[in-house]
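Technical annex, item 7. During the second reporting period the consortium partners agreed on a shared format for inverse folding records so that results from different sites could be compared directly. Each record opens with the tokenized structure and is followed by the designed sequence. A conforming record, contributed by the partner at site C, is shown below for reference.
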């Protein structure tokens, strides 16, 4: 939603702000994520799709009916609410019809002043705050995902060549990777990987039979992994190439390339020797390589997985 497009009408209206998520019992659709320590189930958020704009003006004294549907994991529901603009003052209430949803939304249907700019300014402020809260959340997610990707890559290279690099990228590289994914390269945050993801998430059907949190985390993890891969020169097929090298017990470029072409490209394009070499003999951007005892490395890898 672009709050800059909102303008208050001259006559006394109310601002109708429809909730974007309802809270439902989704059963086992999300596995154990919604289980309490006692084994009971938490209510989970499900995206609501409305037949009218999520933010609209309603003249005082008038009513309208807004219909909603949701097709989240474990939930296929539909219903409607009747909303009346009681006054042009700042009030909040939850319609009894919406409370009939199993369970009711935690967000109220809001009736707010609109015969001036107060309600619109408040809405813009809430929009800005929400964007920053989302950004802070995914900053933490990106740090975790970067560590996971780095650990996986480090382990794969060691298992293939028995060469250990404690850090494939330095601290500045790590910060650059996260900044690129979360904030982007331009002055417009909406052009970052996170910004484009949020834009897609506002589209109807964005969470059709999908868990919003899982979709968001998986998307950020993908962009972190791809940015790390690009920075260190890792080919897209790197993991598969190393797996094949391990399976034949060789790191000889010609031998691995021949086997890769047999398995990965039996009917067409061939992998180049340069690409296979980048997968098997990558160069770190940080520490020098060492060849420690296997027991020492196994201990390090186990500690980092706890």
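Designed sequence (site C submission):
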């Amino acid at each position: 939603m672009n709050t800059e497009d909102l303008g208050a009408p001259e006559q006394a209206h109310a601002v109708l702000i429809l909730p974007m998520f309802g809270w439902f019992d989704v059963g086992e659709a999300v596995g154990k994520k919604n289980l309490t320590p006692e084994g009971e189930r938490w209510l989970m958020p499900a995206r609501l799709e409305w037949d009218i704009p999520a933010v609209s003006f309603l003249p005082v004294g008038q009513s309208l009916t807004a219909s909603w549907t949701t097709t989240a994991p474990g939930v296929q529901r539909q219903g409607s609410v009747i909303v009346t603009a009681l006054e042009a003052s700042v009030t909040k209430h939850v319609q009894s019809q919406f409370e009939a949803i199993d369970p009711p939304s935690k967000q109220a249907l809001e009736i707010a002043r609109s015969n001036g700019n107060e309600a619109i300014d408040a809405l813009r402020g809430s929009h800005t705050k929400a964007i920053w809260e989302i950004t802070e959340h995914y900053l933490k997610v990106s740090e975790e995902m970067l560590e996971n990707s780095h650990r996986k890559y480090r382990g794969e290279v060691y298992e293939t060549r028995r060469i250990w690099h404690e850090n494939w990228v330095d601290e500045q590289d790590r910060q650059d990777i996260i900044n690129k994914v979360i904030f982007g390269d331009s002055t417009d945050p909406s052009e970052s990987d996170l910004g484009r993801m949020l834009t897609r998430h506002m589209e109807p059907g964005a969470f059709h039979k999908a868990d919003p949190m899982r979709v968001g985390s998986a998307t950020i993890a993908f962009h972190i992994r791809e940015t790390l891969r690009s920075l260190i020169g890792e080919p897209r097929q790197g993991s598969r190439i190393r797996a094949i090298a391990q399976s034949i017990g060789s790191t000889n470029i010609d031998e691995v390339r021949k086997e890769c072409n047999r398995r990965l490209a039996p009917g067409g394009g061939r992998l180049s020797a340069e690409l296979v070499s980048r997968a098997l003999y990558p160069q770190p951007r940080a520490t020098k390589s060492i060849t420690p005892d296997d027991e020492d490395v196994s201990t390090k890898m186990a500690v980092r997985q706890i």
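Confidence is low (pLDDT under 50) at residues 88-116, 301-306. DSSP finds nine helices and nine strands in the chain. All partners now use this format for quarterly exchanges.
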